[in-house]
Automatic annotation (TrEMBL):
It is found in: Cell inner membrane; Cell membrane. CDD domains: TM_PBP2. Belongs to the binding-protein-dependent transport system permease family. It comes from Kaistia soli DSM 19436. One of its GO terms (biological process) is transmembrane transport. The gene is ugpE. It is a multi-pass membrane protein. The chain crosses the membrane at residues 9-31, 74-93, 105-126, 138-160, 181-206, 239-260. Keywords: Cell inner membrane, Cell membrane, Membrane, Transmembrane, Transmembrane helix, Transport. It holds the Pfam family BPD_transp_1. This is sn-glycerol-3-phosphate transport system permease protein UgpE. The keyword Cell membrane applies.
Length: 275
């Protein structure tokens, strides 16, 4: 039995290593070609560079407003995720503490709204934002992304059900108000799921392409993903430069995901153990 388990583990390890190599090959291809001239990249696309060629990075920073687009993306992502977590957690808290028929009906309505494809509502959403002058506005995009609170609400609601209701009752007896219980007791207890959901939503907003494309038009409001899309024509004959821009855009979110990976696992494991 022990020998059979060892063989299974060895086979699993080999399979996982092979899959990791397949998944990592495109990233290797992109990164190594950012360090080559266009001619070298064309002659040897998978070979290692003979020397570090950083002119591609310098050229991209000179020709593309990376810093401005990064600030736009950072503002949109930070404000949107904050609103999604705040609205989603407050809605889940209200559903847990007041289990009325009206709340159950409202929860069912949220579930139906969550099932509607976002793409099918683009035209009416555009018309609504246009009426309040929020089209081609970073704040308008934040309003759009705040609808992701529904996703946060469902995940937080499932986790919040594992919180002992006796703690909330004890806080009420001690004279703590509704918002005080939410802010001082509930939020610290559900911190693992807040971090997990926050990471998922951050990666969604940062990498989103459809929403900025539809609702933003001014060059000054472009996000990093839109800069990559615009650069397709600009660097049509200079693929190393285009790959360099792609690496610059992906680098922050990859570092963020690696740094937060431990918190994601902790949040999912904590929810699984409590449930």
């Amino acid at each position: 039995m022990h020998r059979q388990n060892s063989k299974m583990l060895a086979l699993l390890s080999i399979t996982m290593i092979a899959l990791a190599v397949i998944m990592g090959l495109p990233f290797y291809y992109i990164i190594v070609n950012t360090l080559k001239t266009q001619q070298v990249a064309g002659n040897s696309p998978f070979g290692l560079p003979s020397r570090l060629f950083l002119d591609n990075y310098l050229s991209v920073f000179r020709t593309v407003p990376i810093l401005r687009s990064a600030l736009n993306t950072l503002y949109i992502t930070g404000a949107s995720v904050f609103l999604m977590l705040l609205i989603g957690s407050m809605a889940a808290y209200g559903m847990i503490t007041r289990r009325t028929a009206l709340n159950r009906l409202f929860g069912a309505a949220l579930l139906l709204a969550f099932m509607v494809p976002f793409q099918s509502t683009l035209i009416p959403l555009y018309q609504m934002l246009a009426r309040v002058h929020l089209v081609d506005s970073l704040n308008g995009l934040v309003v759009m992304y705040s609808a992701g609170s529904i996703f946060c609400y469902f995940l937080i609601l499932g986790y919040m059900r594992t919180v002992p209701f006796e703690i909330i009752e004890a806080a009420r007896i001690d004279g703590c108000g509704t918002f005080g219980i939410y802010w001082r007791i509930v939020l610290p207890l559900i911190r693992p799921i807040l971090i997990t959901v926050g990471v998922f939503q951050t990666m969604w907003v940062w990498n989103d392409f459809i929403t900025p494309t539809v609702f933003l038009s001014s060059p000054v409001n472009k996000t990093l993903v839109l800069q990559v899309y615009s650069a397709v024509g600009q660097f049509a004959i200079n693929w190393p430069a285009f790959m360099t821009l792609t690496v610059i855009v992906l680098f922050p979110v990859v570092v963020f995901f690696i740094a937060m990976q431990k918190h994601i696992v902790n949040g999912l494991v904590s929810g699984g153990i409590k449930g």
